[in-house]
């Protein structure tokens, strides 16, 4: 009997130690994420003629989306030190994506395509619940929610900004998903407003096989140094 008790205690310890270690590592990482310097903020400050009043940071702090309405520009900034700056006129389309599947897309001229019911857009949670199956609603877990931005840069026309990412997935009604969708909707609305104001057809930037020279450059990946 004592041997059995010792055996059970040993198993409990073996199970508890990895779990405790994992929790410790996660908490330390979260604390580090909160305390580390705002490197992207420093990079934004180095971008000429760009003073954004709107900014979204990915949860992993890898990238940020910023907008300066006064100069009609938006930018995507990477923590690695690179950034891409676009004028509003370079925007071609914007799309909401869930788990790799397109839910809704708006292109130049305010043409709306995607999950809609009776001509009206679904609400934040409704979009997530019904967007993948049309009129048939069924709840699934949400692993990734992103905003895809299409520009007239022929080198790299698509930008993807992640608003929610969870490996195991969460139910659409959870606070984390609701908050992410609410934030995404605000940014989607801003880009839709920009697209609605663009009546003329877009002109793609000329493509060349020549290597791009270092430096800023509108709409091109540039060094923040």
TrEMBL record:
Superkingdom field: Bacteria
Stretches that traverse the bilayer: 6-27, 112-132
Keywords: Membrane, Transmembrane, Transmembrane helix
Region (Disordered): 200-225
Keyword Membrane: yes
Name by which UniProt lists this protein: Uncharacterized protein
Organism name: Aurantiacibacter spongiae
